[in-house]
Amino acid sequence: MPLIVHHLNNSRSQRLLWLLEELELPYEIRFYERNKSTMLAPPELKAVHPLGKSPVLEDGALKLVETGAICEYLVEKTGKLGPPDSGEGLRRYRQFLHYAEGSVMPTLLLMLAMGKVPLLGKIAVKKVQPMVDVHLDYIEQELASRPWFAGQQMSAADVMMSFPLEAAVSRAGLGPSRPASMAWLKKIHARPAYQAALKKGGEYDYA
Ligand SMILES: N[C@@H](CCC(=O)N[C@@H](CS)C(=O)NCC(=O)O)C(=O)O
What we know:
Helix content: 55-70%
Low-confidence stretches: none
Oligomer: single chain
Structural class: alpha+beta
Bound molecules: glutathione
Strand order of the largest sheet: 2-1-3-4
Number of domains: 2
Mean pLDDT: 96
Order of helices and strands: EHEHEEHHHHHH
Radius of gyration: 17 Å
């Protein structure tokens, strides 16, 4: 039975499609459209999982949420794109797997939400920018010292970090002043698996 991905257009669930392509696992996509005014997921996603968020991965009777946990599940299932063997690589792998959603995305979401507040929103965004910059500077420093987040090879940690960096380009000023981050984005976007996922996933404004 193929895996099923419940996928919301223009969302971070795109990176799960990329992971599945990299792992060469067969999967089907169930598509959901954001509400055009609220940008929230449609109520049908709540019928799939009580959180009503995307992605949800179905593997037989299993329903999994949280992209980081789904990454770990698929890495264990296939034995691919896991941590490097070295202690330092393993530590970095774990850290970036959690850091993407645990630390970077909250500041980027705050920025998105503040940007939508009329009038005072612009001032609030300026206050949030330094909080985002701390992360972008750290990420730049890390990527300047090795090709991938965990080490010399691509891993699921890179998949997790893809959406925060893509979102930072579109809403937090990530650009040529951070060349290692931009080169990393160019490199992942050029991967055949990334491109295949993009074709299958439909609308995605971040690549
Ligand atoms: N930490 C979760 C975040 C899940 C999440 O918030 N997904 C967004 C997609 S960008 C969503 O479904 N948003 C629609 C909504 O909240 O209604 C993960 O990494 O899977």
